[in-house]
Write a structure and sequence with these properties.
Elements lengths: L11 H4 L11 E7 L4 H14 L3 E7 L2 H10 L4 E4 L5 H5 L2 E16 L5 H7 L3 H8 L20 E5 L4 H10 L9 E3 L1 H10 L4 E6 H4 L11 E3 L20 H9 L8 E9 L5 H11 L16 H12 L4
Helix pairs in contact: 11-12
Length: 316
Protein backbone atom coordinates (compact mmCIF):
# COMPACT_ATOMS: atom_id res chain seq x y z
CA UNK A 1 0.00 0.00 0.00
CA UNK A 2 1.25 3.47 -0.81
CA UNK A 3 1.99 5.52 2.29
CA UNK A 4 -0.20 8.57 2.78
CA UNK A 5 1.83 11.74 2.37
CA UNK A 6 1.21 15.23 3.67
CA UNK A 7 1.77 18.27 1.53
CA UNK A 8 4.11 20.39 3.62
CA UNK A 9 3.69 24.11 3.11
CA UNK A 10 6.97 25.97 3.20
CA UNK A 11 6.32 28.84 5.52
CA UNK A 12 9.70 30.55 5.49
CA UNK A 13 8.40 33.40 3.40
CA UNK A 14 5.61 33.90 5.90
CA UNK A 15 7.81 34.18 8.95
CA UNK A 16 10.40 36.45 7.31
CA UNK A 17 13.40 37.53 9.29
CA UNK A 18 11.61 36.99 12.60
CA UNK A 19 12.23 33.24 12.37
CA UNK A 20 15.80 33.83 13.58
CA UNK A 21 14.94 35.96 16.59
CA UNK A 22 15.99 34.32 19.83
CA UNK A 23 12.70 35.35 21.44
CA UNK A 24 10.86 33.16 18.96
CA UNK A 25 12.78 30.00 19.81
CA UNK A 26 13.35 30.11 23.56
CA UNK A 27 11.02 29.70 26.49
CA UNK A 28 8.61 27.16 27.98
CA UNK A 29 5.42 25.89 26.30
CA UNK A 30 2.84 24.13 28.46
CA UNK A 31 0.28 21.83 26.83
CA UNK A 32 -2.45 19.59 28.27
CA UNK A 33 -5.61 17.84 27.14
CA UNK A 34 -6.85 15.19 24.74
CA UNK A 35 -5.40 11.71 24.76
CA UNK A 36 -6.20 11.57 21.04
CA UNK A 37 -3.66 14.27 20.20
CA UNK A 38 -1.12 13.41 22.89
CA UNK A 39 1.10 11.00 20.84
CA UNK A 40 1.27 13.46 17.95
CA UNK A 41 2.18 16.43 20.14
CA UNK A 42 4.81 14.36 21.96
CA UNK A 43 6.43 13.57 18.61
CA UNK A 44 6.31 17.20 17.52
CA UNK A 45 7.83 18.30 20.83
CA UNK A 46 10.68 15.80 20.56
CA UNK A 47 11.64 17.00 17.10
CA UNK A 48 11.13 20.69 17.86
CA UNK A 49 13.22 20.66 21.03
CA UNK A 50 16.10 19.02 19.17
CA UNK A 51 15.95 21.80 16.60
CA UNK A 52 15.48 24.54 19.19
CA UNK A 53 17.09 23.35 22.45
CA UNK A 54 16.23 26.60 24.23
CA UNK A 55 12.53 25.68 24.07
CA UNK A 56 11.10 23.43 26.78
CA UNK A 57 7.74 21.82 26.05
CA UNK A 58 5.76 20.27 28.92
CA UNK A 59 2.89 17.97 27.86
CA UNK A 60 0.27 16.14 29.91
CA UNK A 61 -2.80 14.17 28.85
CA UNK A 62 -6.07 14.29 30.73
CA UNK A 63 -8.92 14.57 28.23
CA UNK A 64 -10.20 17.27 25.91
CA UNK A 65 -12.30 18.80 28.69
CA UNK A 66 -9.21 19.39 30.81
CA UNK A 67 -7.32 20.81 27.85
CA UNK A 68 -10.07 23.30 27.11
CA UNK A 69 -10.55 24.26 30.77
CA UNK A 70 -6.81 24.71 31.30
CA UNK A 71 -6.48 26.81 28.15
CA UNK A 72 -9.42 29.08 28.99
CA UNK A 73 -8.16 29.60 32.55
CA UNK A 74 -4.71 30.52 31.29
CA UNK A 75 -3.14 27.67 33.28
CA UNK A 76 -1.41 26.43 30.11
CA UNK A 77 -0.38 27.84 26.76
CA UNK A 78 -2.16 25.30 24.56
CA UNK A 79 -4.95 22.82 25.10
CA UNK A 80 -5.29 19.64 23.06
CA UNK A 81 -8.95 19.27 22.05
CA UNK A 82 -10.37 16.34 20.10
CA UNK A 83 -13.89 17.58 19.44
CA UNK A 84 -15.68 20.60 18.04
CA UNK A 85 -15.07 23.85 19.89
CA UNK A 86 -18.36 24.89 21.43
CA UNK A 87 -20.07 28.27 21.08
CA UNK A 88 -19.90 28.86 24.83
CA UNK A 89 -16.14 28.23 24.74
CA UNK A 90 -15.68 30.66 21.87
CA UNK A 91 -17.59 33.27 23.86
CA UNK A 92 -15.12 32.71 26.71
CA UNK A 93 -12.23 33.47 24.39
CA UNK A 94 -11.30 30.11 22.88
CA UNK A 95 -9.06 30.45 19.81
CA UNK A 96 -7.75 27.43 17.96
CA UNK A 97 -6.06 25.94 14.96
CA UNK A 98 -6.84 22.49 13.57
CA UNK A 99 -3.69 20.42 13.18
CA UNK A 100 -4.57 16.83 12.16
CA UNK A 101 -7.46 14.42 11.75
CA UNK A 102 -8.08 11.00 13.30
CA UNK A 103 -10.99 8.84 14.42
CA UNK A 104 -12.62 6.89 17.22
CA UNK A 105 -13.10 3.15 16.68
CA UNK A 106 -15.30 0.70 18.62
CA UNK A 107 -13.56 -2.41 19.91
CA UNK A 108 -14.17 -5.77 21.53
CA UNK A 109 -12.00 -8.36 23.22
CA UNK A 110 -10.29 -10.73 20.78
CA UNK A 111 -11.61 -13.65 22.87
CA UNK A 112 -15.21 -12.53 22.48
CA UNK A 113 -17.14 -15.76 21.77
CA UNK A 114 -18.67 -14.15 18.67
CA UNK A 115 -15.57 -12.35 17.37
CA UNK A 116 -15.50 -14.25 14.07
CA UNK A 117 -19.13 -13.36 13.35
CA UNK A 118 -18.58 -9.69 14.14
CA UNK A 119 -15.62 -9.48 11.79
CA UNK A 120 -18.02 -10.54 9.02
CA UNK A 121 -21.14 -8.59 9.94
CA UNK A 122 -19.94 -5.67 12.08
CA UNK A 123 -22.58 -3.51 13.74
CA UNK A 124 -24.80 -0.82 12.26
CA UNK A 125 -25.18 2.63 13.81
CA UNK A 126 -28.61 1.84 15.24
CA UNK A 127 -27.20 -1.27 16.94
CA UNK A 128 -24.40 0.72 18.56
CA UNK A 129 -27.04 3.23 19.66
CA UNK A 130 -29.11 0.49 21.30
CA UNK A 131 -26.03 -0.64 23.22
CA UNK A 132 -24.74 2.75 24.40
CA UNK A 133 -27.76 5.09 24.34
CA UNK A 134 -31.09 3.29 24.83
CA UNK A 135 -29.66 0.16 26.45
CA UNK A 136 -32.16 -2.00 24.57
CA UNK A 137 -29.44 -4.40 23.44
CA UNK A 138 -27.96 -5.97 26.57
CA UNK A 139 -26.79 -9.38 25.36
CA UNK A 140 -24.45 -10.52 22.61
CA UNK A 141 -26.95 -13.18 21.52
CA UNK A 142 -29.33 -10.37 20.57
CA UNK A 143 -26.91 -9.60 17.74
CA UNK A 144 -25.79 -13.07 16.64
CA UNK A 145 -27.47 -16.47 16.74
CA UNK A 146 -26.74 -18.29 19.98
CA UNK A 147 -28.62 -20.48 22.43
CA UNK A 148 -26.64 -18.99 25.29
CA UNK A 149 -27.55 -15.65 26.85
CA UNK A 150 -24.30 -13.72 27.13
CA UNK A 151 -24.32 -10.22 28.64
CA UNK A 152 -22.57 -7.31 26.96
CA UNK A 153 -20.21 -5.53 29.32
CA UNK A 154 -20.30 -1.93 28.14
CA UNK A 155 -17.48 0.52 28.89
CA UNK A 156 -17.31 4.27 28.34
CA UNK A 157 -15.07 7.14 29.43
CA UNK A 158 -15.35 8.69 32.88
CA UNK A 159 -13.38 11.81 31.96
CA UNK A 160 -14.69 14.68 29.83
CA UNK A 161 -13.14 13.79 26.52
CA UNK A 162 -13.39 14.24 22.80
CA UNK A 163 -13.44 10.50 22.09
CA UNK A 164 -16.61 9.96 24.12
CA UNK A 165 -18.29 13.07 22.75
CA UNK A 166 -17.40 12.10 19.19
CA UNK A 167 -18.58 8.51 19.65
CA UNK A 168 -21.77 9.74 21.31
CA UNK A 169 -22.45 12.06 18.40
CA UNK A 170 -22.12 9.13 15.99
CA UNK A 171 -24.56 6.95 17.94
CA UNK A 172 -27.06 9.77 18.49
CA UNK A 173 -26.40 11.37 21.85
CA UNK A 174 -23.99 13.32 24.04
CA UNK A 175 -21.26 11.98 26.31
CA UNK A 176 -23.52 12.11 29.35
CA UNK A 177 -26.00 9.84 27.52
CA UNK A 178 -23.51 7.01 27.08
CA UNK A 179 -24.23 3.97 29.21
CA UNK A 180 -21.57 1.71 30.62
CA UNK A 181 -18.88 1.52 33.26
CA UNK A 182 -16.85 4.72 33.19
CA UNK A 183 -13.09 4.32 32.81
CA UNK A 184 -10.51 7.11 32.87
CA UNK A 185 -8.47 7.78 29.75
CA UNK A 186 -7.74 5.95 26.52
CA UNK A 187 -5.22 3.55 28.10
CA UNK A 188 -7.66 2.66 30.85
CA UNK A 189 -10.54 1.97 28.49
CA UNK A 190 -8.36 -0.17 26.23
CA UNK A 191 -7.22 -2.17 29.27
CA UNK A 192 -10.81 -2.64 30.46
CA UNK A 193 -11.84 -4.23 27.16
CA UNK A 194 -8.61 -6.23 26.84
CA UNK A 195 -9.26 -7.78 30.27
CA UNK A 196 -12.92 -8.65 29.67
CA UNK A 197 -13.88 -11.19 26.96
CA UNK A 198 -17.44 -9.80 26.98
CA UNK A 199 -16.40 -6.15 26.95
CA UNK A 200 -17.09 -3.48 24.36
CA UNK A 201 -15.65 0.03 24.26
CA UNK A 202 -14.17 2.68 21.98
CA UNK A 203 -10.74 4.23 21.57
CA UNK A 204 -8.88 6.81 19.58
CA UNK A 205 -7.02 5.13 16.72
CA UNK A 206 -3.59 5.43 18.30
CA UNK A 207 -4.72 3.54 21.39
CA UNK A 208 -6.47 0.82 19.39
CA UNK A 209 -3.45 0.07 17.19
CA UNK A 210 0.14 -0.72 18.15
CA UNK A 211 2.50 2.07 17.09
CA UNK A 212 5.26 -0.35 16.04
CA UNK A 213 3.37 -3.18 14.34
CA UNK A 214 0.45 -0.98 13.21
CA UNK A 215 -1.78 -3.95 13.99
CA UNK A 216 -4.59 -3.84 16.57
CA UNK A 217 -3.32 -3.79 20.14
CA UNK A 218 -2.95 -7.33 21.41
CA UNK A 219 -6.07 -8.50 23.19
CA UNK A 220 -8.56 -6.26 21.37
CA UNK A 221 -9.99 -6.09 17.87
CA UNK A 222 -11.75 -3.19 16.17
CA UNK A 223 -15.46 -3.81 15.71
CA UNK A 224 -16.26 -2.91 12.08
CA UNK A 225 -18.90 -0.30 11.25
CA UNK A 226 -21.63 -1.67 8.99
CA UNK A 227 -22.02 1.73 7.38
CA UNK A 228 -24.74 0.84 4.87
CA UNK A 229 -26.61 -1.32 7.38
CA UNK A 230 -26.89 -4.38 5.16
CA UNK A 231 -25.81 -6.82 7.86
CA UNK A 232 -22.40 -7.53 6.31
CA UNK A 233 -19.00 -5.89 6.08
CA UNK A 234 -18.54 -5.16 2.40
CA UNK A 235 -15.04 -4.92 0.87
CA UNK A 236 -14.95 -1.10 1.09
CA UNK A 237 -16.00 -1.32 4.77
CA UNK A 238 -13.25 -3.81 5.64
CA UNK A 239 -10.55 -1.32 6.65
CA UNK A 240 -9.39 -2.48 10.09
CA UNK A 241 -6.57 -4.99 9.49
CA UNK A 242 -3.87 -2.41 10.17
CA UNK A 243 -3.55 1.27 11.02
CA UNK A 244 -2.44 2.33 7.55
CA UNK A 245 -5.52 0.81 5.92
CA UNK A 246 -7.79 2.57 8.39
CA UNK A 247 -5.95 5.87 7.94
CA UNK A 248 -6.39 5.60 4.18
CA UNK A 249 -10.12 5.01 4.64
CA UNK A 250 -10.37 8.08 6.89
CA UNK A 251 -8.45 10.21 4.39
CA UNK A 252 -10.75 9.09 1.58
CA UNK A 253 -13.91 9.67 3.69
CA UNK A 254 -14.81 5.98 3.56
CA UNK A 255 -14.81 6.03 7.35
CA UNK A 256 -17.57 8.43 8.46
CA UNK A 257 -17.22 11.73 10.33
CA UNK A 258 -18.08 11.31 13.14
CA UNK A 259 -16.47 9.14 14.45
CA UNK A 260 -13.61 10.66 12.41
CA UNK A 261 -12.88 14.26 13.39
CA UNK A 262 -10.36 17.11 13.40
CA UNK A 263 -8.03 17.68 16.35
CA UNK A 264 -7.14 21.16 17.59
CA UNK A 265 -4.68 23.16 19.63
CA UNK A 266 -6.57 25.79 21.65
CA UNK A 267 -5.59 28.88 23.64
CA UNK A 268 -7.31 31.76 25.38
CA UNK A 269 -7.18 34.23 22.55
CA UNK A 270 -4.44 34.23 19.94
CA UNK A 271 -1.19 33.36 21.77
CA UNK A 272 0.83 36.41 22.74
CA UNK A 273 4.09 34.58 23.38
CA UNK A 274 6.20 34.63 20.23
CA UNK A 275 7.83 31.27 20.93
CA UNK A 276 4.36 29.67 21.18
CA UNK A 277 3.30 31.20 17.86
CA UNK A 278 6.55 30.03 16.28
CA UNK A 279 5.89 26.48 17.48
CA UNK A 280 2.38 26.54 16.02
CA UNK A 281 3.71 27.79 12.69
CA UNK A 282 6.24 24.96 12.70
CA UNK A 283 3.45 22.44 13.42
CA UNK A 284 1.52 23.71 10.39
CA UNK A 285 4.63 23.61 8.21
CA UNK A 286 7.55 21.25 8.84
CA UNK A 287 5.65 19.41 11.57
CA UNK A 288 3.15 18.08 9.05
CA UNK A 289 5.68 15.66 7.57
CA UNK A 290 5.60 13.66 10.82
CA UNK A 291 1.82 13.22 10.75
CA UNK A 292 1.35 10.00 8.70
CA UNK A 293 3.99 7.96 10.55
CA UNK A 294 2.42 9.00 13.85
CA UNK A 295 -0.91 7.52 12.76
CA UNK A 296 -2.86 10.65 11.85
CA UNK A 297 -4.31 12.26 8.73
CA UNK A 298 -3.17 15.58 7.30
CA UNK A 299 -5.73 18.33 6.84
CA UNK A 300 -6.28 19.72 3.31
CA UNK A 301 -3.36 21.92 2.14
CA UNK A 302 -5.59 24.94 1.53
CA UNK A 303 -6.82 24.79 5.11
CA UNK A 304 -3.29 24.55 6.47
CA UNK A 305 -2.24 27.45 4.25
CA UNK A 306 -5.09 29.68 5.45
CA UNK A 307 -4.33 29.00 9.11
CA UNK A 308 -0.62 29.62 8.52
CA UNK A 309 -1.25 32.96 6.84
CA UNK A 310 -3.54 34.14 9.64
CA UNK A 311 -1.18 33.06 12.41
CA UNK A 312 1.99 34.39 10.75
CA UNK A 313 0.69 37.94 11.13
CA UNK A 314 1.26 37.60 14.87
CA UNK A 315 5.06 37.60 14.62
CA UNK A 316 5.61 40.07 11.80
Amino acid sequence: MKKLLCVVLIGAALYGCSRDKAADTSGRITISGAWALYPMVVKWAEVYQKKYPDVIIDISAGGAGKGMADALSGAIDLGMVSREVKKAEIEKGAWWISVVKDAVVPMINEKNPFAAEFRKRGLAKNEFSQIWISGKIKNWNSLVKSDTITAIHVFTRSDACGAAETWAKYVGGAQEDLKGVGVYGDPGLADAVRNDPLGIGFNNVNFAYDAKTKKPVRGIIPLPLDINGNGAIDPDESVYDDRDTLMKAIAEDKYPSPPARDLHLVSRGVPEKKHVVKFLLWVLDEGQKYVPDAGYICLPPDRIKKQTEELSKKIR
